[in-house]
Amino acid sequence: MSNIEQTVMTFPAKPEYVGVVRLVVSGIANRMGYTYDEIEDIKIAVSEACGNAVQHAYEDQEGEVKLTCGVYEDRLEMTIEDSGKTFADDVKRQAAPVEETAEIESLHEGGLGLFLIEALMDDVSINKDNGVKVTMTKLLNRDEVDQSASKISTTPSQ
Predict the structure, then answer these.
(1) Measured between alpha carbons, how far is 122 from 76 in angstroms, rounded to an integer?
(2) Each residue of 84-107: pLDDT tens digit?
(3) What's this model's pTM, rounded to 2 decimal places?
(4) 3 state DSSP class of 123
């Protein structure tokens, strides 16, 4: 299926811009017809990906983060990318769910954002070739009544 629209936004890698990105993806998702809960999931996942880029990519240096939203008929694809330093492979392993029997001292900080992103999105890929590029896909499940329906029947269709 071909890409219908693409929105690209580049912003400084600063925490105060994450809210702006949330507004952008919320507006796009709302226009596409996602439910309130789906939009909240999208906003959380995008916030986590942007927050990771802002916090870790450039350390104390200036940098930029790029958001690309691909609007398709059946899905929204969002890519968050930076050209800063990448994260270690063990961060992804740390993102696994916490065991109920784990001692509190063995719990680690960080890595849960990736787990959350994967839990909320339908597909997630991470590329660490030049910086970090996180691509997230949320499928659009339209359960509403077809707008072109001409009549409503109470008898079962055969």
Answers:
(1) 10
(2) 877 654 444 444 455 555 555 554
(3) 0.75
(4) strand
Residue 10, H or E segment: strand 5-12
Q: What is the pLDDT of residues 134-143, one digit of tens each?
A: 999 999 986 6
Q: Report the distance separating Cα 125 and Cα 147, nearest Å.
A: 35
End-to-end CA distance of the chain: 31
Reply yes or no on domain 5-139 having CATH 3.30.70.1450. no
What lies within 8 Å, CB to CB, of 78 at 6+ separation is 25, 42, 45, 46, 49, 67, 68, 69, 70, 135, 136, 137, 138
Ordered by start, the domain boundaries in the chain are 5-139
